[in-house]
Design brief:
By secondary structure, the protein is α/β, with parallel strands linked by helices. It has a single domain, classed as Rossmann fold (3-Layer(aba) Sandwich). Strands 3-2-1-4-5-6-7 form a seven-stranded parallel beta sheet, with helices on both faces. Helix 1 crosses helix 8 and helix 3 packs parallel to helix 4. The radius of gyration is 18 Å and the shape is globular.
Length: about 260
């Protein structure tokens, strides 16, 4: 067996939502395995802080791009800018996301469309741009989409989020089948309940945390770093025969009846 199956030296990754949380953890993990990394987020100070930490892992081979992916019409030109500045992207991680909760019967079309633009449409547009880029380069690549437990099931008040993530799962499968001829692998990671800044209000709610822990056989909230190993598998030579799959990193949540 090769000893460098997870080595990403010479490759460049773009991670959307890379300023914090899961996106940052994956970006840093890819950098630690030798990849140059471009991170994209809405907030400048998050990007600056994240870039400093990622740069320590890969000798400063990091770029930052501030953008709002709700503006889906700008995604194609944005990707071209990333390619121009980095020299090319081999790995795309679609991690940017948002959620708005509310009863389905009262949910506004404006909020519905916002969640879908950020979570699903921007990932589709980014993936299209990536595919065209890799075809022009005459080489394959890897796309990793960040899904959710709601790719599998739903909770009340999550109609927009759950449907966007369910769409992400089927987009993953469809692009994997369609783009295999270009040697582009497309997979997804389905996180369980992960302790991040965004979920801190839920973590602080004792009854909610008790419910999470009761449903998670490993008995804890996940950490962003728990997703890094799976991302490395899907981005590297170790996972080159894996495509069209979602791997749940959920502490055993979906295994429990």
């Amino acid at each position: 067996m090769e000893s460098n199956l997870f080595d990403l030296s010479g490759r460049t990754a773009l991670v959307t939502g890379g300023g914090r949380g899961i996106g940052f953890a994956i970006a840093k993990g890819l950098a630690q395995q030798g990849a140059a990394v471009a991170i994209l987020a809405r907030t400048a100070h998050q990007l600056e802080k994240a870039a400093g930490r990622i740069g320590q892992a890969n000798s400063g081979r990091v770029w930052t791009f501030q953008a709002d992916l709700e503006k889906t019409e700008a995604v194609g030109p944005l990707f071209e800018t990333v390619v121009s500045e980095t020299g090319g992207i081999d790995i795309l991680v679609n991690c940017a996301g948002t959620t708005i909760r509310g009863p389905a019967e009262d949910f506004s079309l404006e909020d519905w469309e916002k969640v879908h633009r950020v979570n699903l449409t921007s990932a589709f547009e980014m993936s299209k741009a990536f595919c065209r880029h890799r075809r022009q380069a005459g080489a394959g690549g890897s796309i990793i989409n960040i899904g959710s437990l709601t790719c599998h099931g739903a909770r009340p008040t999550t109609a927009a989020y759950a449907s966007s993530k369910g769409g992400m799962l089927m987009l993953t499968k469809t692009l994997a089948v369609e783009w295999a001829k270009y040697n582009i692998n497309v997979n997804a990671i389905g996180p369980g309940y992960i302790a991040t800044e965004l979920t801190s209000p839920l973590q602080a709610d004792k009854s909610f945390t008790d419910w999470v822990l009761a449903k998670t056989p490993l008995g804890r909230w996940g950490r962003p770093d728990d997703l890094v190993g799976t991302a490395l598998l899907l981005a590297s030579k170790a996972g080159e025969f894996i495509t069209g799959q979602i791997i749940y990193v959920d502490g055993g949540w979906l295994a429990l009846l």
